[in-house]
Structures are given as C-alpha cells and as structure tokens.
Design brief:
This is Phage tail protein. It comes from Siminovitchia fortis. InterPro entries: Dit_BPSPP_N, Siphovirus-type_tail_C, Siphovirus-type_tail_N. Pfam families: Sipho_tail, SPP1_Dit. The protein is mainly beta. It folds into two domains: about 120 residues, Beta Barrel (Elongation Factor Tu (Ef-tu), domain 3), CATH 2.40.30.200; about 100 residues, Jelly Rolls (Sandwich), CATH 2.60.120.860. It is built from one helix and 18 strands. Strands 1, 2, 5, 6, 7, 8, 9, 11, 14, 15, 16 and 18 form a twelve-stranded antiparallel beta sheet that branches. Strand 12 and strand 13 form a beta hairpin.
Length: about 240
C-alpha cells in the first residue's frame, strides 16, 4: 500500500511518498560557549529548525490533470502559518512545519510525476497527554524529552475567592477572583490566556504569578481545585 502524509489535518489522495526522505534524527543545537583561560562554559543552547526533504509522486495521464493536482497540492501546503505535518511511516510523530523553497527537481516520466517537498520544522511532537491534578502535591510523570507548554481546565463545584496551580520548583499561577459553582476556568501557558466561561479574565492574574513549563520526568503539582491539565510530548 502506498504511503502518504497529512498536513493541517488534511490529506491529498493524489500524491504518494517516494523513498529518499532526508532529515536529521533531531533538531540542530546552536551552542554558545564562553572560553576563558582554557576553561569552557556553556552559556546557552538554542534549538534550531529541523529540515525535511520528502520526495513525492503522482500519476497524470494528461497535462490538465497535472495542473489540477499541482493546484490542489499548493493550495494544501502553502500557508502563512505553521501547520502540523505527519508521515504514515512515522507513527506517533508530528512536526510543526512550513513548506520551504520550491520543487526545482520536478520531472515527468511518462505518466509519472516526481519532485521533492522541503519543510522546515520548529517543533517535533509526540502524543497528547492529560493529567488530573488534585489539591495535594502528587507526583506526575511528564513524558517526552524537552519542556512543553500546557493548558488546564477547571470546573468549580464550590465557590472560591482565588485559584492556584503550583509546583514544588517555584512555579505558580495565582488568580484572584470570586469563582462560583459551575464556573469553567481555562488557562493556556503558551499564550498566557486566562478565560472564565469563555471570557477573558487576565485581570485576575496576581503579580506573584510565576509561569512555568512542564519539564520531562517527575514533577509535583497541586491546584486549589481539581483540575485537568493537558500537554503534548516534545522531542529533540
């Protein structure tokens, strides 16, 4: 069975993957090293963009068919924002990617058409995970290899004059607001959005708040009301 790919949750039934995908097993690492008197200190590390080259093919018996397929291909893949890319032969891996460059190796071979798509990737993702946080510190295993953002959802069953999520490593979200039973609170670490029943509640964020990512491994977290937290595994 011919394998294909998905981008932004959509597939194109006209194309199939060819052998010859080229990509590093992990993102490039840009290291800043300070050297003084023969001693070397790592100052910071930045993860670079991963490049993926993927040969594809399709069948076109007529020139008009070729034009139609290329039109559908470019409408699908050329975007102004990052999209989620996945390949059938890489189960459990997704890439936050953009199409880069052109397809300058495109060629016709009888009815066959072949060329190479080039993507740049800013994040390599794994599975989506959910943890249920209680009101006492407990251990949770964060899977993946690198820090990851999170979202949370809290449905209040009793009134509360504030809400907190905190870790034993100093991270804490503090919201000062009079919540009532039935309220639904949603927090997005990456965008710093705080919404109550769908409406912005950023005004409730206390100055003492220390935003935190989830680090892979064992972490201890608690919330002042039972809370569902979601994250996506991230990989090197």
């Amino acid at each position: 069975m011919l394998k294909s790919m998905s981008f932004n949750g959509q597939r194109n039934s006209s194309i199939y993957l060819l052998r010859g995908r080229s990509k590093s097993p992990f993102h490039p690492l840009n290291r800043e090293i300070v050297s003084t008197n023969g001693r070397h200190r790592l100052k910071k590390t930045e993860r670079g963009l991963l490049e993926i080259s993927q040969p594809i093919g399709f069948v076109a018996k007529e020139d008009q068919t070729q034009m139609d397929i290329i039109k559908s291909l470019t409408s699908w893949l050329i975007t102004n924002n990052w999209g989620v890319l996945s390949f059938d032969d890489e189960p459990g891996r997704r890439y936050v990617a953009l199409l880069q460059n052109d397809m300058n190796d495109f060629e016709k071979i009888s009815w066959l058409r072949e060329g190479t798509l080039q993507f740049v990737v800013k994040e390599t993702l794994g599975a989506d995970k959910t943890i249920n946080i209680g009101t006492e510190f407990a251990n949770y295993t964060i899977t993946g290899q690198t820090e990851t953002p999170w979202t949370s959802r809290t449905r209040f069953t009793v009134p509360q004059s504030s809400f907190t999520i905190e870790t034993t490593k100093g991270g804490k979200i503090i919201l000062n607001y009079d919540f009532i039973a039935g309220d639904i609170l949603e927090i997005d670490y990456e965008t710093r959005d705080v919404r109550l029943n769908g409406k912005d509640l950023a005004v409730s964020i206390a100055l003492e708040t220390v935003w935190f990512e989830l680090e892979p491994g064992q972490v201890q977290i608690k919330a002042s009301h039972p809370t569902e937290m979601k994250y996506t595994e991230r990989y090197h």
